[in-house]
Amino acid sequence: MPPHAYPPKPRPGDRVAVLSPSAGLPAIFPHVYELGLRRLRDLFELEPVEYPTTRVMNADPRDRARDLNAAFADPSITAVLATVGGEDQVRVVPHLDETVLRANPKPFFGYSDNTNLLTRLFDLGVVAYHGGSVLVHLGRPGSPHPLSMQSLRAALFTHDWHELTAATEYGDEPNDWRDPASLDRPPVMFPATPWSWLGPERVVEGPLWGGSLEVLSWILQAGRIGPSSAYAGCVFVLETSEALPTAVEVYRILRNMGERGLLAGFPAVLVGRPKAWEFDTPLAPEQKREYAAAQRAAVTRALAEYAPDAVVVFDLDIGHTDPQLILPIGGTARVDAIQQRITVRY
């Protein structure tokens, strides 16, 4: 496949678009959102620019797409940041002006439901960035996590190779945004298990593709994934969300991708540390360990059946857990199973 184009990067002092292409949660949690905006200004010296639907819940998909098109078309905007994820960006994608997006490439940052836009930009030949959230990461209670901010800074401002750092602690039990006082105390953190490697000891290099596994399944069902050959040679990225999909569901999604011929084309797979707790599913510590083990077994089973020669790395901090490392979708990754190192080009 031809190499994807890295868009020009912003510089301190630039204007960046802050949009809600999925859920308009800034309307419900303005205190978290405003904290994230302050940190965007103070830590990165970037000037956030809001659009009509940024603080609107349940905005019409056509209006959200209109804001995305406007942000990409505006020459004074040098990056586009999603406030948070959601669940219906699949309805926004049909209204995007692909001519505008292709002609005005800009770094887009988002994850979870924003996998819709990340994969669309991939298909348009533009590198985009899986990770970063104004509410979740910039608005993190207490203070932003240093690893998240280090990765976000590098992804925002550099085109360099960046080695991913394994976290020594992680969190998946966030503070309750409904309580403004919760912003004063950091979230609870736990000792992080190290990365776990599976497969042959070799070095794989290729463009990254993927994102939230549940959202990928929606995109596939909507018929918005190209032929499997278009993704052959990619390093596959997968992580799961606060919906806590069962191991059976995870296996079935991957099985169906395998039947489509997608998995066989991936020489390496990066698997995010699974989030195993949510407010309506407050699993106990042992239940969390069992959930994570079952999900890993499901992924291992599917890859053994459809991509047995792939290099696989588990428990990367690349998804819905805290901290979060940014991945350039369409950008180059080097997965070194000999030295057990992962580097990405931002």
Automatic annotation (TrEMBL):
Signal peptide: none
SUPFAM superfamilies, per database record: Class I glutamine amidotransferase-like, LD-carboxypeptidase A C-terminal domain-like
This protein's record includes keyword Protease: yes
Superkingdom to which the source organism belongs: Bacteria
Residue ranges of domain LD-carboxypeptidase C-terminal in the record: 205-335
Xref: InterPro entries: Carboxypeptidase_A_C_sf (IPR027461), Class_I_gatase-like (IPR029062), LdcA_N (IPR027478), Peptidase_S66_N (IPR040449), Peptidase_S66C (IPR040921), S66_fam (IPR003507)
Protein name (Swiss-Prot/TrEMBL): Muramoyltetrapeptide carboxypeptidase LdcA (Peptidoglycan recycling)
